[in-house]
């Protein structure tokens, strides 16, 4: 049950970041940066790199992994389409179609 509550809390945080910083709607790395900054405070490049790469550092700061934040973004955007970036959706769709064509052939 704790994991579900943690993920719901993460979704709320991600939703707030998507509303506050529109650039996060199209770039997961930008979203992850703002998420980490929100959790940790001021970030240097070195600290952000360590948060991204090392799970024990993330655990010490109570920061979720990049993939969890990305997954939360997709879920939030599915619930709230107004938080999607139209250009990013088009690019992702085009890339998905290209991959499907490649996989079939």
| Major β-sheet annotation | none
N-to-C CA distance: 44 Å
- Helical percentage: over 70%
CA radius of gyration? 15 Å
Strand content: under 5%
Given as residue ranges, the uncertain stretches (5+ residues, pLDDT < 50) are: none
Structure, explained:
The structure is a single chain. The chain is an all-alpha fold. The chain has one domain (2-104). The protein has helices at 2-20, 28-40, 45-53, 55-61, 66-79, 86-104. The model has no long low-confidence stretch (mean pLDDT 90). Helix 1 (2-20) crosses helix 5. The N and C termini lie far apart (44 Å). The longest helix is centred in the N-terminal third of the chain and has 19 residues, at 2-20. It has 6 helices and no strands.
Q: How would you briefly describe this protein structure?
A:
The chain has 105 residues and is mostly helical. Helices cover 77% and strands 0% of the residues.
How is this fold's topology laid out?
Elements: H1 2-20, H2 28-40, H3 45-53, H4 55-61, H5 66-79, H6 86-104
Helix pairs in contact: 1-5, 2-5
Describe this protein with a few key phrases.
77% helix; 0% strand; mainly alpha; 105 residues
């Amino acid at each position: 049950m704790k994991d579900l509550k943690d993920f719901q809390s993460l979704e709320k945080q991600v939703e707030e970041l998507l509303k506050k910083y529109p650039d996060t709607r199209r770039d997961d790395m930008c979203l992850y940066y703002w998420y980490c900054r929100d959790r940790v405070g001021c970030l240097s490049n070195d600290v952000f790199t360590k948060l991204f790469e090392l799970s024990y550092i993330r655990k010490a700061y109570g920061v979720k992994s990049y993939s969890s934040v990305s997954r939360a973004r997709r879920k939030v955007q599915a619930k709230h389409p107004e938080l999607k970036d139209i250009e990013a959706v088009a690019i992702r769709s085009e890339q998905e179609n290209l991959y499907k064509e490649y996989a079939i052939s």
